[in-house]
Design a protein that fits this description.
81 residues, mainly alpha
Length: 81
């Protein structure tokens, strides 16, 4: 995410919103609570944007970062076993 911010692909507010959305997703995974319906739902809890704008401007970046976080989280869980 830092690379997106440094390269000017997202601004500070967007970077913070992505971070908070990913943090919420990981917390839900960790505590085993019911997750929201979509990554869009997590993102829009922190950054108000229409669905079309999300799909056009954010989806690829956010979903890529969530995949990275999921892989890291899985590795963390495997180390704990």
């Amino acid at each position: 995410m830092l690379n997106y911010f440094v390269k000017g692909k997202i601004n500070k507010e967007e970077a913070e919103s992505i971070y908070l959305a990913i943090r919420d997703i990981i917390n839900d995974w960790y505590y085993g609570v019911e997750t929201k319906d979509s990554i869009y739902d997590y993102f829009t809890a922190h950054h108000q944007v229409e669905k079309e704008e999300y799909l056009k401007s954010y989806r690829t970046k956010v979903e890529y970062l969530v995949r990275l976080a999921r892989d890291e989280f899985a590795n963390y869980l495997l180390k704990e076993i």
